[in-house]
Design goal:
The protein is an alpha+beta fold. The protein has helices at 4-9, 11-45, 65-74, 146-153; strands at 77-84, 89-97, 100-107, 110-117, 120-125, 128-132, 159-163, 166-173, 176-182, 187-194, 197-204. Strand 3 and strand 4 (110-117) form a beta hairpin.
Length: 216
């Protein structure tokens, strides 16, 4: 019978030892690879500071709503009015100052330059003006009278929703719906829906608009 020490020193014994060492090495290598993969997954699942959502929201202070209304009615501003009826669309772009309007009307018939003061509405052609009566003839222009609009709404309750620095004020008056949108300082939009007609009134540069100068 072959001695154990002699067996391990033989060629067969040495081969078995080498095979065992290789199997141990391969097992260690597999274990390292599996551990590395698990570690990588753990790292990926851990959000970085940039990936973490900041749930804190900044608090904004809004000017009193009635003060915003007074400012819009008393001061000058630039505007874009988009009126959409069932079959037509009209865009009025201009500025208002000292109860005077100067702007452009755009519809399917082209573009009209107009001027409005206490004496009426005029079509402007170079330095000449012609009295017209059809500037707002295809819809109810009373909804463009902001003083009348807010006076009519003053008796109605409204809901308020704030989203960051935007405040949405919604009236649901019988006959029509009105949404007023403000930033922290000014009214920026008034949206009115009456039957099949919508009035989208946009205001910018409130209190900053240049004085209108028009001479015959």
């Amino acid at each position: 019978m072959e001695n154990k020490n002699t067996f391990w020193q033989s060629e067969r014994g040495k081969a078995i030892i080498k095979l065992g060492l290789w199997m141990i090495f391969i097992a260690i290598l597999i274990a390292v690879v599996i551990f590395s993969d698990n570690s990588s997954e753990d790292i990926k699942l851990t959000p970085t500071e940039e990936e973490t959502t900041n749930t804190e929201t900044e608090n904004y202070e809004f000017t009193n709503y009635n003060d915003m209304i007074d400012k819009l009615l008393l001061y000058n501003y630039e505007y874009t009015y988009t009126i959409t009826t069932l079959d037509s669309k009209y865009i009025y772009t201009g500025w208002k100052n000292n109860n005077q309007d100067l702007g452009f009307k755009e519809d399917t018939n082209g573009i009209t330059k107009y001027f409005i003061d206490e004496t009426g509405s005029y079509r402007i052609n170079l330095d000449n003006r012609e009295l017209i009566t059809d500037l707002y003839s295809n819809f109810d222009a009373s909804y463009l009278n902001l003083s009348m609009l807010f006076d009519n709404l003053s008796e109605y309750l409204y809901s308020v929703e704030k989203n960051a620095d935007v405040r949405t004020i919604t009236y649901d008056k019988e006959g029509y719906q009105v949404t007023v949108i403000t930033d922290t300082e000014n009214i920026t939009n008034i949206n009115i829906t009456v039957d099949t007609t919508t009035y989208d009134l946009e205001f910018t540069k409130i209190g900053e608009c240049a004085t209108i100068v028009f001479t015959d």
